[in-house]
Specification:
This is Class I SAM-dependent methyltransferase family protein. This protein is 24% helix and 34% strand. The protein is α/β, with parallel strands linked by helices. Strands 13-12-11-14-15-17-16 form a seven-stranded mixed beta sheet. Strands 2-3-1-4 form a four-stranded antiparallel beta sheet. It has a four-stranded mixed beta sheet with strand order 5-6-7-8, with helices on one face.
Length: 327
């Protein structure tokens, strides 16, 4: 079977393998191969591989079968992986317990199983969890070379946005001023800082800010990350005209904070505006809201319109990369 591989010189092989493993990009269904002085590492999503790595397609050798939860259950359960935790979304308590037992008995490197016990709720967008295995809801997640500690019961975090976060982070240039209006535990701010940006991250959730500070320390960027607990509408005037880049990852209500985004924007600022809209016009509402907030003080140019993922039937999670320039 033809499979995407990263091809790298053998002397760079182990370092590259670790980087891909940290980003959760290695395809464990296929063997790593060596040929003619090159190492071939199978990857699950070639589009998410860093641009400085070469991706090739070649025949892949399937690994010897490892025991999966599906092998033990007789059906393929739906779950997400986050660090050494598996996250379930099962309404039936008995089915959830059965899946948890199979996960622990399988060869997955997992010691915690959590089942969603509520919808996302409140201003901080957290949910309740049933702990089916493990000690608590705290996990350590690795993503594109960064490490994030977080407690799923007290902060919001979505592993599904890893590729989008990486896309934005790759645009960072050394010395930038980056302002994350809804920073959470730092999945944007930390990789920004690792690429040389000076970052300010704001969040109304005090627990998220504590984890942001901890994650800055874990990743060696405490000197480039300022974590601020508070409502960004109150904080923004303290950073008037400061930002070269602003991240607005609050898709359901980012438009309510555009005045603050314009406040912190410098003379030439790139705004990453995440939104959820109907598939018939996924980008129009966001662009109109941004223009209403920024013009005529800024010239507004939409540089990128990107569909991040499907969110619900006929609804899309999208991002507009918008340049704000003072005339």
């Amino acid at each position: 079977m033809e499979v995407p591989f990263v091809r790298v010189a053998r002397e760079r092989g182990e370092r590259t393998r670790r980087e891909l493993a940290d980003a959760d990009l290695i395809d464990d269904d296929y063997e790593i191969d060596v040929e003619d002085g090159s190492l071939y590492i199978p990857v699950v999503d070639p589009a998410a591989v860093a641009s400085d790595l070469e991706v090739v397609t070649r025949s892949g050798v399937e690994r010897e079968t490892q025991t999966t939860p599906a092998d033990l259950l007789g059906f393929d359960p739906s779950y997400e992986r986050l660090g050494r935790a598996v996250l379930l979304d099962e309404d039936d308590e008995g089915r959830a317990r059965k899946i948890a037992d199979a996960v622990l008995e399988s060869d997955l490197p997992v010691d915690t199983v959590l089942n969603k016990a509520s919808k996302v709720k409140g201003e901080t967008r957290v949910r309740d969890w049933d702990v089916l295995a493990g000690e608590n809801t705290e996990v350590v997640h690795r993503e594109y070379g960064c490490e994030f500690a977080l407690d799923l019961a007290s902060v919001y975090f979505s592993p599904r946005l890893a590729t989008e976060r990486h896309r934005v982070a790759q645009q960072i240039e050394d010395g930038e001023h980056a302002f994350d209006m809804f920073a959470g535990v730092g999945p944007f701010a930390i990789p920004f800082a690792k690429r040389g940006a000076e970052c300010v991250g704001v969040d109304v959730n005090a627990d998220a800010i504590d984890y942001l500070r901890e994650n800055a320390r874990r990743n060696g960027v405490s000197d480039r990350v300022t974590a601020v607990h508070g409502d960004v509408r109150t904080v923004a005037p303290d950073y008037e005209g400061w930002a070269d880049r602003v991240v607005m990852n609050l898709p359901h209500s980012a438009d309510e904070f555009l005045e603050s985004a314009v406040t912190v924007a410098g003379d030439d600022c790139l705004l990453h505006y995440h939104d959820i809209q109907h598939e018939d016009d996924p980008f129009g509402p966001g662009e109109r809201a941004i223009r209403e907030a920024a013009e005529p003080a800024y010239e507004v140019t939409v540089e990128t319109e990107r569909t991040v993922r499907s969110y619900a039937p006929h609804e899309l999670n999208v991002c507009l990369d918008v340049r704000l320039e003072r005339p």
